[in-house]
Amino acid sequence: MSLTDGELAAQLADAAGRILLQVRTSGLLSREVLGKAGDQTANQFLLHALRQQRPDDGLLSEEEQDNLERLSHSRVWIIDPVDGTREYGEERADWAVHVGLAIDGVASIGAVALPALDVVLRSDQPQPLPPGAPIPRMVVSRTRPAREALAVAEVLEAELLPMGSAGAKAMAIVRGEAEIYLHTGGQFEWDSCAPVAVASAHGLHVSRADGSPLAYNQSNTYVPDLLICRPEWAERVLMAMRSLPE
User: Fold this and answer.
1) Based on the structure, what is the number of domains in the chain?
2) pLDDT at 169 (0 to 100)
3) 56-74 pLDDT tens trace
4) pTM (predicted TM-score)
5) 131 within domain boundaries
6) Whole-angstrom Cα distance, residue 84 to residue 193?
7) For 242, how many CA atoms within 13 A lie in the half-sphere containing its CB?
8) 19 and 91 part of one domain
9) Residue 83 structural domain
10) Residue 129 falls within a domain, yes or no?
């Protein structure tokens, strides 16, 4: 029996995550090469599996040279084999595997694995959102938090939660560990496609930082900014962004 797109995304993210854990715990690689080895190993698995399971769809991977032939497809799988390579190599838990499917430019199906936590969050099996905190918690980069995110956090009197990968940050909102993920430092489509699909399916607000829609499978894969947050905070975050000086 063939897998649905949601089932396929979840199985791929889970299997790639397990492979990555085996690579990391093998003890055969130094920290200097562990991240690269994990990226390449998970990428090859995901590419081969997707080409076998969905041969007529387009593909975009962080770890593969972009082929603009994908622009002729309405269905394009967008993957990040290791989101948070630094965190993976440092044996932290805040890294992820992203398997997303954009349909006509919309992040429609996705699965995000958090392998170190043995968790896979998926768009086809949304769960009720846990209660939010009255004082918002905002996830930010643990190494280079964006100036705009820090300014918005000050306006909202939000608590800052430094964290690693984009997927880990986005899933922290889904899991009820924080209320707001605002990123203005620039990303690429593979950084957010799967997390946006999962977050949207769980009823969260997803948009650009100015409130405009996100678009995927574009010729230029750069995504300047991103907002994922609980719906009750969306307008306040957007208003705070609009109030910032140019």
Assistant:
1) 2
2) 98
3) 999 999 999 998 999 999 9
4) 0.96
5) no
6) 15
7) 9
8) yes
9) 5-122
10) no
